[in-house]
Design goal:
single chain, about 375 residues, Rossmann fold, 2 domains, 8-stranded mixed beta sheet, 13 helices, binds nicotinamide-adenine-dinucleotide, NAD, NAD(P) transhydrogenase subunit alpha part 1, nucleotide-binding
């Protein structure tokens, strides 16, 4: 079986789906690895490292037409899919609920599409959970970006020239990214507060040494799967009232709130931004899904009334070396489950394989995707 990796084509994408370390493991499993020259360059992995790990450097078209299993970070372009071998498989972040036309394309081309983003988040699949690996990086980087934009210290400083109080950081949304943003801001010495609509998060926030902002909500805010639900208009207003006061006194606000399959909830209004002090910073890492702040411009850093509002895109790519290392490990864990006797074994009785497999043999497979596409 041939496993292929091509250079990523998206402008902001520096990650690679398979590292030399991953290549070595797949080679030892008896698989042949084809890789396009310079696929790992932007994440500091050289062609020579891939060759030393057992890969063969091949031209893009040959990889696409001969590969049985293509590994990628971003979903490859349609023009690449058209060149892929019939009945071959692709593993990448496919976001099938957001890209239904892409799913149709895979179905019509008889390609198997496995989405790293639809692997169920159960304990057995933890080592394959690329959403968590990447969110962790995004949260870490968000805290660093906040510190970098701020024209003040984060830790308390006692110097001969006077004492500087610690900066106040507010994190909205305490999922994987938010918790890592809290931990990183704490390590940098800030005083951190956080809020999430899932009550279960309070304990996790406090265990990181941050204060949990309480907003009494009179409705169920969490799905059975542990994700957030969209709030009613009444509770959204209630949440905004409480958050407004905390935003106004914060030096850095990091927003990470997402609701699966929906645009990001708007938590920070224009008025709240205008009530922040000059020089304060908002890092809105929900920018990719429209942003949690009303004035965020995705992909840009703007100044609104002397407040810096940054809506970065693809933060994991900015830590490409480690992001690739973790993503490659997540993929390898999935392959450990998928590959039997050197061939993919699409055992749909296994809930991980079933949910990750969006398309196979011209059919929609993933129960998760089917349910949520309704
Ligand atoms: N293997 C596992 O068991 C595993 C792994 C990772 C995550 N999870 C769980 O998955 C869930 C989601 O994690 P995620 O980081 O992917 O979440 P996410 O990226 O979907 O959302 C980020 C956070 O935003 C919060 N949020 C949504 N609307 C909000 C609002 N209006 N105000 C404030 N916060 C709001 C969510 O509650 C969530 O904590 C969590 O329960 C997490 O523990 C489980």
């Amino acid at each position: 079986m041939i496993v292929g990796v091509c250079k990523e084509t998206e402008a902001l994408e520096k990650r690679v789906a398979l590292t030399p370390e991953g290549t070595e493991k797949l080679s030892k499993m008896g698989l042949t690895i084809y890789i396009e020259s310079e696929s790992g360059l932007a994440s500091s992995y050289s062609d020579q490292q891939y060759i030393d790990s057992g890969a063969e450097i091949k031209k893009r078209n040959q990889i696409l037409s001969e590969t049985d299993l293509l590994l990628a970070v971003q979903a490859p372009l349609a023009e690449d899919l058209e060149k892929m071998k019939k009945n071959s498989a692709l593993i990448a972040f496919l976001w099938p609920l957001q890209h239904k036309k892409y799913v149709d394309f895979l179905l019509n081309a008889d390609l198997t599409g496995m989405a790293m983003d639809t692997i169920p988040r159960i304990s057995r699949a933890q080592s394959m959970d690329a959403l968590s690996s990447m969110s962790n990086i995004a949260g870490y980087k968000a805290a660093l970006l906040g510190a970098n934009h701020l024209d003040r210290y984060l830790p308390m400083m006692m110097t001969a020239a006077g004492t500087i109080p610690p900066a106040k950081v507010l994190v909205l949304g305490a999922g994987v990214a938010g918790l890592q943003a809290i931990a990183t801001a704490k390590r940098l010495g800030a005083v951190v507060e956080a809020f999430d609509i899932r009550p279960a998060v309070k304990e996790q926030v406090e265990s990181l040494g941050a204060k949990f902002v309480e907003v009494p909500l009179e409705e169920e805010s969490e799905t059975k799967g542990g994700y957030a639900k969209e709030l009613s208009d009444q509770n959204k207003e209630k949440q905004r009232e409480v958050i407004h006061k905390h935003v106004a006194k914060s030096d850095i606000v990091i927003t990470t709130a997402l609701i699966p399959g929906k645009p990001a909830p708007q938590l920070i209004t224009r008025q709240m931004v205008e009530d922040m002090s000059a020089g304060s910073v908002i890092i809105d890492i929900a920018a990719e899904q429209g942003g949690n702040c009303e004035v965020t411009e995705p992909g840009k850093t703007i100044r609104h009334n002397e407040v810096i509002v940054d809506g970065p895109l693809n933060l994991p790519s900015s830590l490409a070396h480690h992001a690739s290392k973790l993503y490659s490990k997540n993929i390898l864990s999935l392959l450990d489950l998928l590959i039997k006797d050197g061939q993919p074994n699409f055992n749909f009785d296994d809930e991980i394989i079933a949910n990750a497999t969006v398309t196979h043999n011209g059919e929609l497979i993933s129960p998760f995707v089917k349910e949520n596409m309704k």
